[in-house]
Amino acid sequence: QGVVLMDPSEDPDDTLRANRSREKTFVFDMVFDHTATQEEVYVSTTKSLIEGVISGFNATIFAYGPTGTGKTYTMLGADSEPGIYIRALDDLFKGLGATAEEADYTVSMSYLEIYNEVIRDLLNPSSGFLDLREDSRGSIQIAGITEVSTTNAQEITQLLMKGNKQRTQEPTAANGASSRSHAVLQVTVTRRSRRQETGEEVRIGKLFMVDLAGSERAAQTQNRGKRMKEGAHINRSLLALGNCINALSEKGGSRAQFVNFRDSKLTRLLKDSLGGNSRTVMIAHISPASSSFEESRMTLNYAYRAKNIKTQV
């Protein structure tokens, strides 16, 4: 469960800095090394949340980390090794199928990306940029997003693959197929009880799966011009997310923190998943290369802070 981060530039003979070692240990709920399979990662992080979604809780899974560490692989996976999106939806339909006698259910999903602080629909890319609106109950809606209703996991897999091809990807010096946007897959499960005596009992559970764009340094990715602007937008929304996480993790602390969800589209969309009625898992990705020591340290600090958020479901 622990991660030990060693500083590659440390000199064992340097007596002056002997007790100022930058070696750090972090403790998490689960740590996977390079031998872990997609199945293992899914079972230990996400599998337990699916039951909750069916019974009306919200759940959110984040993939976070610097550029090129495998977030898209974890979430989408390859054809032979499907990722969390597909495994979670598979389990969701199996779970719903098991309770089909007691309740009617509908499943609708939408898949969108946030690129340069604008929202694009990945299932219908020609619809242009979409707006975030708040409805009368205070929940955030996206005006004009395509919602697909289906009960077939194969169909969804094809949609996801198609949607992922529409994602903004550009090569940078650090990663040949770098995702330049945050992708959000939102699955809404509505269950209506069939029992007469309970009246119309409707349970709505939302499952958010978020593949964040990698945080990056312009020096490392050697970005100029448009790429650099994208990188600035990516880092800005990740910073907003970090600020929200900081504020939420200090909620019970000495100073009452104001949580600014409106700093970016990403945090506004995920408002309920971060501080609301939701069970949230963050999967932090780091690279073992010594060149990305700083990024790994920042990522681990970030994920470690996220661990301290306590929400009242």
From TrEMBL:
Keyword terms, alphabetized: ATP-binding, Cell projection, Cilium, Coiled coil, Cytoplasm, Cytoskeleton, Microtubule, Motor protein, Nucleotide-binding
Keyword Cytoplasm among UniProt keywords: yes
Entry's Gene Ontology molecular function annotations: ATP binding; microtubule binding; microtubule motor activity
GO process terms (BP): microtubule-based movement
SMART domains from the UniProt entry: KISc
A GO cellular component entry from the record: microtubule
Protein family membership: Belongs to the TRAFAC class myosin-kinesin ATPase superfamily. Kinesin family.
Listed name of the protein: Kinesin-like protein
Organism: Tachuris rubrigastra
